[in-house]
Amino acid sequence: MPVERSFLRRCAAASLPLFWFTTPASSADDPFKDTRALFVQAYTRASSVSTAPVGPDNDALQTYPLYPYLQAARIRQALTNGTDALDSVDQRAATFLAYYDREPVTRELRRSWLENLAKRRRWPLFLDHYRDASATDALRCNSFTARIELGRTEGLASDIAAQWLTPQSLPECETAFEWLRARDALTPALIEQRVRLALDKGTPAFARQIIAQLPAAKAGPYLQWAAILDNPQRGIDTVIGAPTTPVDPDALFAGWKLLVRRDRDGAVARYDSLVRARQLDEATASRYALALAAPLAWNRDPAALDFFDKARPADFDESTFEWQARAALWANDWKRVERAIAAMPPELRDTPRWRYWSARAADERHDRDAARQLYESVIPNDNYYAAMASARIDRAMKPHPEKLPLDRAKVKEIGQLPAFVRSRELLRASMRREALTEWQYGYDSLIETSRPQTIHLAADWEWFDVAVSTATQLRVFNDYTLLYPQPYDKEVRTAAKTMGVQPDLIYGVLRQESLYRSDAVSSAGAYGLLQLLPSTARSTAQRWRRARPSATDLFNPSTNVTLGAGQLRILLDRFGGQTAVALAGYNAGPNAAARWLPTEALDPDIWIENIPYNETRGYVQRVLWHSLVFAWLRSGDAQQTDGWLARIGAPADPAVLGDSEADSGVRNTF
């Protein structure tokens, strides 16, 4: 479940203000409770700009597992405030780093101290404590300056040349680049490589800065490339109108892809003219056709199939194989669906997704035996396609649980290891980012056979997002009791009753949105368990005559679940009770979901498969499956999924719900 892993990384980066949220202990046994409170107070002071003197720490604090974090914070504070003699601070930092060496507590201090040393040009000390493997680009550039200043230049030219080859500006490296240039080692070939990197990344303005370092004779083609990126329509038209004018093939194709992204219809209108004007042979024209085919398929444009036909199968990748099949599904061309699936690489063709669609195609040509055999092969996979396959053969879907063996003694042993003790204390102190780092450090130190028990450990701590992400890392998916907890049952059931939404659907959304994190904040500014944008929460509260919530109110599980369920109810009503469309609207925004509705009723699996946003398609499929699992856990009964087969159509009311902000927070890629 890659979405869950990526969510964990996003939420780790989008941390809350320190100590906003405190994770409760899952056990009455909390020996560090009082000392932790002292630590939190001291750490808060050490993280501020306060210059007030600090008295001696008591014995309990000095022996507390997180005391090194307080020491590191005080050293960083001293570096920032400049209240202590910097030589003394340097000695404290050096001693601390030497003692704790590669432990996670050193990472932020090392970076801060090295940045400070670089500003003070304390190059010998800088190099003594610099580690390239964990360095930022800026610190790596500073290390080059240090080596130049100290005359440690053996192998330096190749190191700087490797850093030179980056598509963005590196101001900290200008000294190093000048050193390379002064030795005639910054060759035109290196300059051209960096220009190409910048142009490939689509940054023509920065590329021009590098192009200026080339001889005029070599600069021309790259300036032409930059001009095409600046205005791809004008650039492509110029190339068509002057067929004998030389143009770099990569520049032409980069401009073409940008034109397709900005103006698909314009690209369609120019395709034949471009092929004729530049006399593109079949092999060369293929990638131009393919670059246009997939975006047309995203837009459900029937012309997509024509452009897939113009491309060579050898040029297809996994994504284009799939979009060719989706375009055929949208066109209801089942023979073409079968051909498209047959052309896929075996490892793709054999996934549950495409085995399910092979079954559907066999069904459409009335080969019931082949269809049933394929449906049966999908069902044990326990996912959205398994549930759809069950519906197709009129069988209730019952998940196939696989218990992860619990070794209680091993779990206790792991939990007492220093890294995991620190991780739990950091979590309880609301230092989530540091807690995750310590967790990973401890996890990496375990032998492989012990690692599965960390899933149980995280679940015991009620650190459910880490339990699920660790399980995903270890490919443990089917221990549903362990991985589908229901810690907010009271809030969910109350909201379900109030808003008329199935509790299993609410839990499905909650699990997918936040992995049970009531303090989650997304990169798009969505808050809490059901990841509500403040604007959406306010409009939903107004609709249901609730108090206007602040952003911080959305960390309250009761408020968040109630308003999230209310938003689901609004979307279900807006889209005629069509759960899949409502879920698409919850993820991508109601305006996007409305745009995707078919003009005529369509099979739901075809509609879902053709949701153009990869994230939203996966989101809808996962939430449907999660909801089924929660319903099964609640009742113990196999679940009927025949309701999933209700056809998708546009509601009678064509009005689009919500304002322009409703779609602004989408994090989707095609």
UniProtKB/TrEMBL annotation:
Enzyme Commission code = 3.2.1.-
Note the superkingdom of the native organism.
Bacteria
Q: Which keywords has UniProt assigned to this entry?
A: Glycosidase, Hydrolase, Signal
Q: Which residues form the signal peptide?
A: 1-27
Q: Give the CC-aspect GO terms.
A: periplasmic space
Q: Which residues form the Transglycosylase SLT domain?
A: 493-597
Q: Name one GO molecular function term.
A: hydrolase activity, hydrolyzing O-glycosyl compounds
Q: Which residues form the Lytic transglycosylase superhelical linker domain?
A: 414-478
Q: Does the keyword Protein biosynthesis apply?
A: no
The entry sums up its family as follows: Belongs to the transglycosylase Slt family.
Instruction: Provide the protein name.
Output: Soluble lytic murein transglycosylase
Organism (species): Povalibacter uvarum
Identify the taxonomic lineage of the organism of origin: Bacteria, Pseudomonadati, Pseudomonadota, Gammaproteobacteria, Steroidobacterales
